Automatic annotation (TrEMBL):
Organism the protein comes from: Gadus morhua
Gly residues bias (residue ranges): 15-30
Source domain of life: Eukaryota
Polar residues: bias regions: 1-14
UniProt-recorded name of the protein: Histone acetyltransferase
Any one GO molecular-function label of the UniProt entry: histone H3K9 acetyltransferase activity
Xref: InterPro entries: Acyl_CoA_acyltransferase (IPR016181), Bromodomain (IPR001487), Bromodomain-like_sf (IPR036427), GCN5 (IPR037800), GCN5/PCAF (IPR016376), GNAT_dom (IPR000182), PCAF_N (IPR009464)
SMART domains: BROMO
Family from the record: Belongs to the acetyltransferase family. GCN5 subfamily.
Amino acid sequence: HIGSTQIPSLNSSGGTEGSGSVPGAGGTEGSGSVPAVGSARIAVKKAQLRSSPRPKKLEKLGVYSSCKAEGACKCNGWKSPNPPPTPPRTDQQSNAVNLQDPCRSCSHTLGDHVTHLENVSEDEMNRLLGIVLDVEYLYTCVHKEEDADTKQVYFSLFKLLRKSILQMGKPMLEAHDNPPFERPSIEQGVNSFVQYKFSHLPSKERQTIVELAKMFLNQINYWQLETPSQRRQRGPNEDAAGYKANYTRWLCYCNVPQFCDSLPRYETTQIFGCTLLRSVFTVMRKQLLEQARQEKDKLPPEKRTLILTHFPKFLSMLEEEVYSHSSPIWSQEFLLGSTGLQIPIHTVISASPVARPLYYSPSPIQVEIVSCGSVSPARKMVSLLEMSTVGEKRKPSEPLPHEDAKRQRVVGDIPQELINEVMATIADPAAIPETNLLSAHSARDEAARLEERRGVIEFHVIGNSLNQKPNKSILMWLVGLQNVFSHQLPRMPKEYITRLVFDPKHKTLSLIKDGRVIGGICFRMFPSQGFTEIVFCAVTSNEQVKGYGTHLMNHLKEYHIKHDILNFLTYADEYAIGYFKKQGFSKDIKVPKAKYVGYIKDYEGATLMGCELNPSIPYTEFSVIIKKQKEIIKKLMERKQVQIRKVYPGLSCFKEGVRQIPIESIPGIRETGWKPMGKGQGATQIKCSVKTEAPGYYQVIRFPMDLKTMSERLKSRYYATRKLFMADMQRIFTNCREYNPPESEYYKCANLLEKFFYTKLKDAGLLEK
């Protein structure tokens, strides 16, 4: 939903008439927005749930209620012993609710989870049920949203609502300040503008201006703000932190409450002032006028003059006052008349409140390159003609099928319901561990990622241009990059660095902190050859060891995935090889030699390294995903251990003379998840004696060798040459394959260990070509 516009009819006067059928505009692919009918669908679900029998309501609330049984049970929500199938069947009859049904997690009854709701009124229970559905919907938004800032807000609201259910309280947003965030508001400012510029007009003409002002206020209330990251990609801006704060407020108080009605909702024009208006006015005005010009022949005759003639003039005059720091319309005193009384706003201009759902676009949005290499999502706006028909019923688009429904199930997969259950546990506010940046287990780029989210650092792809005059800020950043590369790469001629940094064929991913350049990666793309050459990579010395280098490279990887270039090549000196290895580079080059010979610069004394990108990996969030996956596996292991936590007596059969037994006969072995391997699974044996472990081994293998013998030879300095050491190791692999059948695990392990051994030799430069 971010970076798109949902615009009401320009031929309406700002009332609610016709505004209920606003079609969805294009949005960013993968954003957390929902179908146009999402808000109405949630309202229907809430109505259905609130009309359910009380036991059904208790069952729903029990899922989000901690267990109250004696013994300090730590279960944070009741899990049905008979979960519905995945995906659920539409023809399935709902089972009767029994308060004695045990929880699948803690075995206590449903009644033990809802004892606190026994004396709660129906109205209070219906209020809590509304919050439950909002929690479930926000959970979906968190997992669909791709933008980090938006995801973070969704997740904070998710935790807030879930906490409200647990504590049976009302959700209260904790913030340093509450709405309104600026005075005068946008609505008051526009009202003052009408009074300031048009109070002398006759009544009829003045009414036309009022209609235009209402129309403009409705546009703002429908406007979908672009994310801070998208705003940065369009080009440098002065107040990134301020815009990010306003974006977060807009999400919490204006946007999300449109479909989560358990949160208080405000109109954008009533709680924000000139700061937000200045940040969106230029782009908004340009798009509205362009849209009006494109559809001028389709507009109703009675509205054509209003929209095509008067509205552009109105916007031009308003623009002067919006960006003028001396304009009286933003003065609180201007609203006071000569009598000292405030003008009643609603009698002049007030945008009528409307219900506005979020929108989701199933089709990918094209990315366009703007000047100096910045990236900006393309805009797609709603047709004015579509918006001009008053009261017309529109067919709602079908909801998108969930991606998991399309994914083919694999034998041995963990049930999706169990995954969702574990994810809900991880998402529980009480279960989320605090991030400690000093922890040995924290990711290298974690601190940098958090700084980017707070707006401390920014990333911009920039470059010089011969076709148009570059922005002054871009030129200053290029000079800063040239200085960073020169200081950090002293063996590289300064003139050479300058030539490449300012070469229009090269681009640089710059790292900006407090308005100055502290690092960057200079590169040249070869789209026809399918690779990019990384020329320079450096972070200024006093900003190193903070994860900036890793985060820089991750941003570069995602930038190239968007441009369908999936291979990096670079020449690394001896000091940089370690860094590039950590970023996934290897000396094993995947790009065919014919593709890059003659294209990239060859550096004496440097090592050619390459990196193949996986377009399925979100590199800037990769460490977070891995951390979450580890947490999921940990939780699954804990659940499995609870199921199999049973101690069996030891095996006594060997004392009675039995030499070997089938593994599957060991008590409890199958409960752990063990399965026989291969065709001869019924004959898998466990043996009691080392002497009988490999019968006839010395008759088959004439020259045995093992790692223990090699260790003793190494300590006694037996290996005078590299070839002696390699010969003994190779003998281990050869003997193993000669004695064991190809389908055995030993045979497969020998192959794996052999491959690992020679890879290490190659990396250490010990393998002759």
